[in-house]
Amino acid sequence: MERDRRDQREYRDYYPEEFEEQEIHLRDYLQIVSKRKYLILTVLAVVFLVVALKTFTTTPIYTASSQVLIERNYGSKGLENQFSRWEPDFLETQSQIIQSTNVAQKVVEQLNLTTRYRSYFFEEETEVTFVQSVKQSIKAVIGPAYDWLRNLAGGSEEVEAGVAGESFNDEPMTEEEIIASIIQGGLSVTPVKNTKIVTISFSHENPGIAKIVSDAVVKAYMDEMLEIRLSTSSYSVKWMTDKAREEREKLEHSERLLQQFMRDNDLVTVEDKLTVLPQKLSGFGNQISKAEAEKKELADQLAQIRAAGNNLDRLEKIPALASSEVLKSIRERIYKANLDIQELSKKYGHKHPKMIQAQSELRSLTDEKSFEIERVLSSITNSYELAASKEESLKELLADTKSQMLESNEKFMQYKVMKREVDSNRAMYDTLQAGIKKESVTEQSQSVNIWVTKKAEMPLSPSQPNTKRNLLLGLILGLFGGVGLAFFIEYLDNTVKDEKDLGDRFGGSILGSVEELKKNADSIESVVVTKPLSPVAESYRLIRSSLLLSAAGKPPETILVTSMGMGEGKTTTTANLARILAQNDKKVLVIDCDLRKPRLGSFFGVRNEVGLSSILTGSGGSEAIVQPPNEGISAILSGPIPPAPAELLGSDRMKMLIESMKQEYDFILLDSPPVQSVTDSLALCQLVDGVVVVVRAGKTTNEMLESGLKKLSDVNGKVLGFVLNGMKMRGNGYYSYGYGSYYTRNEGEE
Fold first, then answer.
1. What's the whole-model pTM score?
2. Mutual orientation of helices 353-441 and 207-264 as an angle, nearest 10°?
3. ω before 144 within 30° of 0 (cis)?
4. Residue 402 contacts by C-beta under 8 Å, 6 or more apart in sequence?
5. CA angle in degrees (0–180, nearest 5) for 262-268-271
6. Backbone phi and psi for residue 591, each to the nearest 5 degrees, phi listed first
7. How many angstroms separate the CA atoms of 580 and 747, rounded?
8. Pairwise CA distance, residues 68 & 103, whole Å
9. N or C: which terminal CB in the chain sees fewer CB atoms within 10 Å?
10. Tens of pLDDT along 362-386?
11. Facing residues of 710 across strands?
12. What residues does 515 pair with on adjacent strands?
């Protein structure tokens, strides 16, 4: 068995894709529902009964509703853009006002509810009838459970206010306050989707009270909105009047200061000066620029003159001299005089009068040229000095103009500050005066327009409890609660449930399953004998076939039958398996190795006086082997209970007994104690060919079975397979192919 499990683990390591989590099919859920159907039906019945009792014992509540159209009043100036204004919280705010304490108290005052309709809000102390006492008892019992179910379903009941008592400030509530709180508790406001219409509903045990209160709430709401508007307007007018008085005083004071400042600083001509001075600054700037350019030009010419020194040729090349028309004329005349001298020199000698006259004219022209150069140079020097003096004068005028302009700017800035303060005070004062006039005009108008579109009608049928809805809710809650509880219990159930569960978790061979018999059926201890063609008898035949094929070469001859705990059917399995093996003309011996709590003797109806304990202690012999009547098998019962069963079962005598019995019998079955209780089975498993583990469905836990298999593996016990006992075949979907009807029909024919 352990080798099979080890091989299976190795196979999973090599082929993990074949052992991935399997998909849960719908039929698996249906099997769980079928298995827990009585639990589901019980929960369904209890929940439905609680809801039904609560529904039919609840006092009927009637609801009357009226509808009003609520719009904000934007006034005549806001008509052009009132459709572009979107206030998502407007209707919610109005809903809170409708449900406010002030509106409820106005309803109490308008309808005089404390005297005229007092009996409808306060229960009179009258004699309680038997029916009323029964209803009150039922409500006290199922009320909390019903409320829990409603909360679980997401529903909510109307708040029932108005319980007389003391408020949180330890002051007793007056009757007006109590009735007002009752009205608030029964009042509901629901905006109609995508409209400006609001539905105002009031619920009460009396339909007439529901109608008149619903209409009165609308009127009280209108009065409340008018009072809010009047109180707001009165306060606004008073505040703005006081504020206007303060602003007027500030305006007068600032005007006086401004007038005094203008008188002290002669600000009448300031603005004219501020207009002229920038023009003067601009003119002076341009003149200074020209003077600087002229001075720079003359300075450059003087530098060239100084660089030329007394060299007339270089001086004549200076642009100021080169461009002189007078010098040009003199140079032309000198040039002509030189030409004349050259012509005369060809004809006359140096001392010829004409030559002397020509040379005299040339010298005169040269002197004239020198004089003109000196004059031009002197003119340039004088012009430079004049330009420098002019530049300094212009700079002084510019600085003086800047000083005057800065002084005028400072005065004008101070003037503008004071003028701005005067203008601000005047604007504030004018605004307040306009606001006072506007509030005075609109003091009697409302900021919210309210129209009644539908008056409340007398309710003919109660709105609560909604019998159909509550019963349907109870049915749904009961069904889903029962199914959920069934799946939750199934999730917590860690026991072995069926062959698939057993095989998937522990591997190994499943020899077969035995159906759990109904209470009115025959005992499973005798069904194999009394009804050999029944499904249970056929199950043991399948187990026999699987057991004979469980070992290679030849079937096991000595078989130990055990279980993990008590009450799992190992003794019954041992006896019925022995009967089935004996039907093939085989000699079968059953040994009761449970020397602590033996049952095999009572099972076969044989007295347990001499048995296995007698043989192992040497006080008995062949007489310990008995032949149960009408069984066809042999049995060695447990005999007297010894003080140390484990030592006897693990002794050499036990081993010799089994070896000797193998010579006479074809099959030897050992019924041993549970593995988890004592170590007897662990000692016996080493003396047999294999072990059959009986598992009871719904009782043997996975942890218990895993621990027991580990103990058997630790002592090298060979597990031949599992027998799944106590299976609810039909409930879990097994034998759906009709074995039960087939065997029942055959038994009837016999």
1. 0.49
2. 150
3. no
4. 281
5. 110
6. -115, 125
7. 18
8. 15
9. C
10. 778 777 777 777 777 777 777 777 8
11. none
12. 727
